[in-house]
């Protein structure tokens, strides 16, 4: 019922915004059309304004249809949840499979491809509170409301400029009317956005979604840690990455993340050249700022073979990866890719799965070293947060 209440608010507020804008703009148009000196220019302004109002009305109708679709999906999802709970009274089975470490295979248990299938596709949906379509449509409604806000704001500003260009008659009054319309519409749109966000929290859906997404994060971090700490480093397959790409810090971090994704996709341990000791951003190397990328595997005397392709390097123990700009034989693991076995869950739980996937590697890379933690703590103590002179 809470979900339906939120949907009702969305619909009513959308209609209220529509009526409000029609009243404001219609009043302005009447004044513009009855102004003696308006002439043909006034008619042109009115015609253009009416055309834009018509387009805005169509946008409102599109949002209304999205709300109806969302209501229908909520009804279907509620029925599915009730059926699942009635069929299975064991609470432990209502947790995501990803939350149980025993269901997470280790690298040594040999999936043929670490990006491949880890668990039965769709298994997690047996315990899903709401369907994937619900979350996808919820995000679509949120984006639609936001885009509608940008659209109305842009159109009203354009109409204000058009009225100003048409002549000096009643310009201050016209600008005031449009400003009032923008301010009022903004308030209603903010309320709509708040209700759209609350829609994702009803019936505990937000908490469950966050928990399942955290389970995916835990799973990815366990995979990365296992890959980076092989039981036998001397015989492990490695990917060598040169930290010092000729660009700024953010660009260099992107470069190392790209190396990391290729290492993950090819099941190789990522090694920084010279263990990152020669880094232009720190005379003390990578570990002055961040934790080592591996606790047990480091750059050794073994010679590295240049990158050819996945197939061309399959028999090489150590492979040196060039910068992405000069990469030939490109593997299928480059952004915007993400693991197939996590795809269904990520599309359901996150609005941008490729960004989430890359973020897992950046998060691992940017774990603060003790030196950096100490420096940040000292800097924080010198900043008087919350104090006002």
Automatic annotation (TrEMBL):
It comes from the Eukaryota. One of its GO terms (molecular function) is alpha-(1->6)-fucosyltransferase activity. Signal peptide: none annotated. PROSITE patterns: GT23. Residues 46-80 form a coiled coil. Residues 235-389 form the GT23 domain. GO terms for biological process: protein N-linked glycosylation. The keyword Membrane does not apply. InterPro entries: Fut8_N_cat, GT23_dom. Keywords: Coiled coil, Glycosyltransferase, Transferase. Transmembrane segments: none annotated. Belongs to the glycosyltransferase 23 family. This is Alpha-(1,6)-fucosyltransferase. The lineage of its organism: Eukaryota, Metazoa, Ecdysozoa, Nematoda, Chromadorea.
């Amino acid at each position: 019922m809470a979900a339906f209440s939120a949907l009702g608010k969305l619909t009513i507020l959308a209609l209220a915004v529509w009526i409000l804008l029609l009243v404001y703009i219609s009043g302005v148009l009447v004044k513009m059309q009855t102004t003696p000196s308006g002439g043909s220019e006034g008619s042109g302004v009115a015609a253009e304004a009416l055309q834009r109002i018509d387009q805005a009305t169509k946008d409102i109708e599109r949002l209304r249809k999205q709300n109806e679709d969302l209501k229908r999906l909520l009804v279907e999802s509620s029925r599915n949840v009730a059926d699942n709970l009635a069929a299975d009274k064991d609470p432990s089975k209502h947790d995501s499979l990803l939350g149980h470490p025993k269901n997470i295979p280790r690298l040594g248990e040999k999936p043929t491809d670490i990006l491949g299938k880890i668990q039965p596709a769709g298994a997690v949906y047996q315990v899903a509170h709401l369907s994937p379509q619900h979350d996808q449509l919820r995000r679509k409604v949120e984006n639609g409301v936001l885009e509608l806000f940008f659209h109305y704001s842009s159109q009203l500003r354009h109409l204000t400029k058009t009225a100003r260009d048409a002549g000096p008659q009643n310009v201050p009054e016209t600008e005031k009317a449009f400003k009032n319309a923008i301010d009022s519409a903004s308030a209603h749109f903010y309320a709509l956005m708040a209700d759209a966000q609350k829609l994702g929290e009803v019936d505990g859906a937000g908490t469950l979604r966050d928990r399942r997404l955290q389970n995916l994060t835990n799973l990815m971090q366990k995979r990365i840690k296992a890959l980076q700490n092989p039981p036998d480093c001397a015989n492990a397959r490695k990917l060598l990455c040169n930290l010092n790409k000729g660009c700024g810090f953010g660009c260099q971090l992107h470069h190392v993340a790209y190396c990391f994704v290729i290492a993950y996709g090819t099941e190789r341990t990522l090694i920084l050249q010279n263990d990152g000791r020669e880094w232009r951003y720190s005379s003390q190397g990578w570990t002055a700022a961040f934790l080592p990328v591996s606790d047990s595997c480091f750059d050794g005397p073994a010679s590295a073979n240049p990158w050819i392709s996945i197939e061309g390097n399959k028999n090489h123990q150590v492979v040196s990866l060039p910068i992405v700009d000069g990469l030939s034989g490109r593997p299928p693991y480059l952004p915007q890719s993400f693991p197939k076995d996590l795809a269904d869950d990520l599309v359901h739980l996150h609005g941008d799965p490729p960004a989430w996937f890359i973020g897992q590697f950046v998060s691992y890379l940017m774990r603060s070293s003790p030196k950096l933690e100490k420096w940040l703590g000292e800097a924080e103590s010198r900043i008087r947060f919350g104090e006002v002179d």
